[in-house]
Structure formats: structure tokens, C-alpha cells
Amino acid sequence: MSAHRSSSKRLLVVLALALNAIVIAAIWLLFARDSDRQVEASVADEEAPTAPRPVLAREVQRPAPPKPAAHEHVAADGIGFMPEHDGDPRPAGALHPHPISAQHQRIFAENRIAFALDDATDAKDVSVMKELLARYRREFPEDQWQLQSGYAVIIDCLEHPGPESRGSAKRWLDQNNGSTVKRSVLRNCIDPPLP
């Protein structure tokens, strides 16, 4: 058995040495070719007149986008917007799809609060959830996405776990099937916690 082990060890040593020799030869060939090319290029540079170097695409000066008319609404980057109606004339050059209106800003603000509520819910940080929910109720009383009552149910489940808050969550789920908070209510109030 020891003869078999020693022969397999010898074979591994021979294979390792052969692999090293191949790697060294490949590196030597690679660098030898590069140095030959450099010598040939330097000899050719001395003999031939110098030709102008080609201009790279990144070095080309691109023309600035056309300046919008004074009455045109532009973004902070100086680029205009697509016309409001299909029949309106379209300005030349790159355009943003639409301006960010007050309505867009309101949607972005609502989304920021909703995302923060989701994060606080994932962290089970009830005090932050309460602050964000109060702010959401104050700034977005219409509650078109049925978030306010869903987060209130989750806060109740986290503060007072038990059959009462679970029953309240079940009733909320029955009445608010289309809410985007449904999964959070299920995860925090109905589904058993994972060990």
C-alpha cells in the first residue's frame, strides 16, 4: 500500500512541475513577443515620418444640446420636455418624457413615507411606525391605497399580540382585500412567527 501512495505522490509532483514549466513558458513567450514588438515599433518610429495619431471618440467635442426657448420649461440639466399633446411641435434634440409636476412630487413624498413604514414594519420598530403613520395621516388623509388602517392593525398586533389583535387583523383582511399592506398584516398578525 505504501508503494501505491508513494507512486501517486511522485505522479502529483511530476504533474505539478510540468504545469509550472508550461506556465513559465507561456509567460516568457507572451513577454518576449511584446518586447520584440516594442523594439520593432521603436525602430520603425525612428525610420518613418510620424503620422498624426487617430482621434479617439472620447476626445471628440460633442456639440452642446440646443438651448430651449426662454418660454420653454426645462429640467435642471438644461434639457427640455416632450410636448404635452401629440399635435404640439416637438423641439429638436434629446427630451425628457414629461416634467416633474407638483402631482409627481406628492406621489414621491407619499411613496417615501410608505417605504419608510415598510422598513419600520420589517424592523418591528413600533415607535417609528407610529410617527410615520401620524405623518402619513396628516399629509395624505385621502388614503387611496388603504394603508393607514392596515398599519394601525399591524401596530396593534406588535404592541398587543394575542387573540384580540389577531381577530382585528382577520376582520381588516376581510374588509380590505385590495390593500398593498395585506401581506404585512398577514406576516405580522396572522402567520405564526418563525423560531
In a nutshell, what does this entry contain?
This protein is mostly helical and 195 residues long. It is 59% helix and 0% strand.
Could you explain how this protein is built, in words?
The chain is mainly alpha-helical. The protein folds into three domains: 1-53; 63-99, no CATH class; 102-190, no CATH class. It contains six helices and no strands. Helix 5 packs antiparallel against helix 6 (182-190). It is flat, with a radius of gyration of 35 Å. It starts with a helix and ends in a 5-residue tail after the last helix. The model has no long low-confidence stretch (mean pLDDT 81).
Please describe the topology of this protein:
Blueprint: H1 2-47, H2 102-123, H3 126-139, H4 148-159, H5 163-175, H6 182-190
Helix pairs in contact: 2-3, 3-4, 4-5, 4-6, 5-6
The class by helix and strand makeup works out as: mainly alpha
What is the string of helix and strand elements?
A: HHHHHH
Largest sheet: none
* Proportion of beta-strand residues: under 5%
Mean pLDDT: 81
Sequence stretches where pLDDT stays below 50 over 5 or more residues: none
Assign an overall shape.
flat
What separation lies between the terminal Cα atoms?
Answer: 51 Å
Rg, nearest Å = 35 Å
Question: Can you tell me the number of structural domains?
Answer: 3
Helix content: 55-70%
Q: Please tally the β strands and state the result.
A: 0
Note the total helix count.
6
